[in-house]
Amino acid sequence: MRIILIGPPGAGKGTQCQRLIDLLKVPHLSTGEMLRAAVKAGTPEGLQAALAMNEGKLVPDPLIVGMVTRRLEARDCRDGCLLDGFPRTLPQAEILDDLLERRAMSVDGVIELAVPRDELIRRMLARKRDDDDPAIFARRIASFEEQTAPLLEYYDRQGKLACIDGLGTADEIFERVKVAVTRFERATKGR
Ligand code: AP5
Ligand code: MG
Q: Is the overall model pTM greater than 0.85, yes or no?
């Protein structure tokens, strides 16, 4: 299964992916984690990414596409993966579709985790990652609304979107995620 998780910052994408890894036995590709590792290692990509990340902006499409392409071509992703934080713009989504199509693969389903802004802010204040400063966090929410939210319609038109209420305990939300995954499995068999 190849599943994308979409949601605003703090929606619980990473939290649900940790649970999905055990269920689906596929690797978890978090672009945020890849970028934070590159920043920590001080690679040229990391230095470029840090400029955008520290302001709560998205890193340039070519940089992230290069990173994800290399990762998707790895052997462990042959039978599927969880995409957390990618794609985040329409060009990224189109590039991903092209890339998979050339390998006779496709996205099986897209999970939207819907969480109201006040709850996102509560979670962010309880966590404190480097980019969880309130002003940067507000910018990350705005980036999501402006650049990433349009992807929901893109995948809905393809009949691949499952919108999930992201409020409740992580376990309660995972029950909803599993229902969506079952639906994706049925749809994939029918394709
Ligand atoms: P990224 O690391 O992806 O950050 P994000 O999208 O802002 O999301 P978070 O990781 O903050 O939240 P999450 O949804 O994973 O929630 P989590 O499970 O951690 O990206 C960082 C930056 O990298 C971006 O701003 C951008 O600059 C750049 N970037 C990344 N990908 C890119 C791309 N494709 N293109 C361009 N730029 C890109 O949960 C959050 C907190 O809430 C945790 O503390 C958790 O324990 C808690 N929590 C989780 N679930 C619950 C629950 N049900 N109830 C209560 N608390 C909960
Ligand atoms: Mg995350």
A: yes
